Amino acid sequence: MAVYWCTEALPLAVTALLPIVLFPFLGILPSNQVCSQYFLDTNFLFLSGLVMASAIEEWNLHRRIALKVLILVGVQPTRLILGMMVTTAFLSMWLSNTASTAMMLPIASAILKSLFGQKELQKDPGRQGEENAAAVRRNGLHTVPTEMQFLASTEGGHAEESEVQLDLPADSMEEEEKEYHKNVWKGFLISIPYSASIGGTATLTGTAPNLILLGQLKSFFPQCDVVNFGSWFIFAFPLMLLFLLVGWLWISFLYVGISFRGWRKKKSELRADAENKARALIQEEFQNLGPTKFAEQAVFILFCAFAVLLFSRDPKFIPGWASFFTPGFISDAVTGVTIVIILFFFPSQKPSFKWWFDFKAPTTKTEPLLSWKKAQETVPWNIILLLGGGFAMAKGCEESGLSSWIGGQLHPLEHVPPVLAVLLITIVISFFTEFASNTATIIIFLPILAELAIRLRVHPLYLMIPGTVGCSYAFMLPVSTPPNSIAFASGHLLVKDMVRTGLLMNLMGVLLLSLAMNTWAQGIFQLGTFPDWANIHEANVTAPPPTSANDTVRTL
C-alpha cells in the first residue's frame, strides 16, 4: 500500500480500500474490525468540517472575508502579499487548501493587473480550466468547480515550465521596471499556496494528516486523550502565525524587496495612480457582493459556534463544557456533527413570525442553508476513504505484530538525543512529502515514529507531532501539493522559482517546528514525561505472541 500510495498506480482512495480485501484473506483482522476503521469518530469530525466549508462556499462568505481583509491591509505590494497570506491561511484552517488557493489566485491576478496596468496575451479559458482541474485531479483531491471556473476566466496560461510574456509598453516602462513587476507577480502567486499549506496545520480539521494523527493515537494508545481540537489549536496556531510572518518576510525580501529608488521617485505619480486603481478594484469587487444576506449571517454565526464549541469542549488548561456530561461520551465529532445538522434545516431566508398566524399565507418551501445535493457535490468523499485506509493500516500493523517488529529494528537509534531526533524526523518527512502525498506520507511514518518514541523513552507526541506537521511543509515542487500545482498552472512560475523559495521555507519550517516542540508544546502536551498510556502500549508490544497465533501471521 505504501508503494501504491507513493506512486499512485491506483487512485489513492482505491488503494485505501485494499485492507478490506487483504486483511481478512491473510488472517490479520476479521472484516468487521477492518470495516469499522473507516467510520471512526475522527472521520465524522473531518466530515463535519468539510460540510461546514461547503456552506461557507455556498453563500460566498469566504470571498467577503477575503476582500474585507484586503481592504484593511492596503494596496502596497508587501502589504497585499501579507493580506493574501493571512486571508488564505485563515480560510485554509476551515476550507480545504485546494479551495482556498483556487479562490485567492484570481483575486490576486485581478489586483495585480489593476496595480500594474498589465494586459496578458489572450488564451483559451476553457483549456486553462481543464489544466487547473487536471492539476487538482493529479493529486487525488476534489475539484472546486465554481472557484476553478472563476480562476479560468480571470487567469490565462499553460502548466508548462515557461514564463508568460507580458505585453508591457516599452515607451512607458524600463527593463528594470518590467523585471520588478514580474517579481511582484511571482511573489503574489507563490505566497498563496504556501500560506494555504501553513494555515491547514492550525486546526485538526484543516488538513487530513492532523486527523490521521488523532486516529492513529487512538489505535496505538487508546488511553491517550491529550490531543483534541482545543489543545491542538493552542499549540499549532502560534506556530502558524510565526511561520506566516517569517515566510512573508522571506517572500517580500526575495521578490518585492529590490528597491528601484530612482524609478520610485520618478514614477511616484504613476505608482500612486496604480495603487488607487487597485484599491478601487477591491472596493468594487466587495460592493458587487451586495449587502450581507441573512444566509451569510446565519452561516457565520454557526461557523463561530462550530469553532468555539470545538475549542472549549476540553481545552485541558481549564474544564470544558463536556465536563457537564458523562465523561468519555462527548467527543469533537459530536460537537461538529451537531452544528452541521443545523445547516440542513435552518432557513436561508429570514423567517416571518406572522406566517404562523396568517392562514392565507402561501405554503412555499424555504430553502435551507445547505442542501444535501450540494453537500454531495462538494464534499471530497475520497478523503474520507483515505483516512479510513490509514486507520485500518494502523490497526493491522498493531494486530499483526508489525509494530513489534519495527520496534525491534530501531535499536541503533536508542542513543540519539531526542532534540536531534525531532530535527532529523522533520527534515526527512518534509523532503519525502515533496514527492508523495502528505496523507500517504504520514500513514507510512506514524507507526515508525510511535515505536521509535517507545525505544527512546520519550513522549510519543514529541516525535509524532513534528512528523505530522512536517508532512504539510512541502514547498519546493509543483507536484508536492495541489495548491502548488494550481499556482504553477498559471504559467507565471518556473520550477526554479519554487525550488529557490521553497528550500528555505522548508528549512525555516523545520527550525520553527523544533522550536515549538521544545518550548510551548512541552506544557500543552506534557512532553517532559513518559506517559502511563505509553507504558501500557509498550507492555502489550513486548509481550510474547500467543501460541495459538495464526500461521499466516507467524509467517509474515
- Helical proportion, percent range: 55-70%
How far the N terminus sits from the C terminus, by CA atoms, comes to 16 Å
Flag low-confidence runs.
Answer: 118-173, 258-267, 542-556
Q: Approximately how much beta-strand content do the residues carry?
A: under 5%
Strand tally: 2
Gross morphology: globular
Mean pLDDT over the full residue set: 79
Number of helices: 28
Largest sheet: 2 strands, antiparallel
Rg, Cα atoms, Å: 25 Å
List the strand order in the largest sheet.
Answer: 1-2
The secondary-structure class comes to mainly alpha
The H/E string reads: HHHHHHHHEHHEHHHHHHHHHHHHHHHHHH
Structure, explained:
The protein has 556 residues and is mostly helical. The protein is built from 28 helices and two strands. The protein has a two-stranded antiparallel sheet. Helix 21 runs parallel beside helix 23 (460-470). The chain is globular, with a radius of gyration of 25 Å.
Which key features would you list for this structure?
single chain, mainly alpha, two-stranded antiparallel ribbon, about 65% helix, disordered C terminus
What's the gist of this structure?
The protein contains 28 helices and two strands. It is mainly α. The longest helix has 28 residues, at 229-256.
Q: How do the helices and strands line up, and which of them pair or pack?
A:
Blueprint: H1 2-7, H2 12-16, H3 18-25, H4 31-36, H5 41-58, H6 61-73, H7 77-92, H8 97-116, E1 119-120, H9 125-138, H10 145-154, E2 166-167, H11 175-199, H12 208-220, H13 229-256, H14 261-266, H15 268-288, H16 294-312, H17 332-343, H18 372-378, H19 381-400, H20 402-408, H21 418-432, H22 438-456, H23 460-470, H24 482-488, H25 495-517, H26 520-525, H27 532-542, H28 551-555
Antiparallel strand pairs: 1-2
Helix pairs in contact: 3-19, 5-17, 6-7, 6-15, 7-8, 7-11, 7-13, 8-10, 8-11, 8-15, 8-24, 9-10, 9-24, 11-13, 11-24, 12-19, 12-22, 12-23, 13-25, 16-17, 19-22, 20-22, 21-22, 21-23, 21-25, 22-23, 23-25
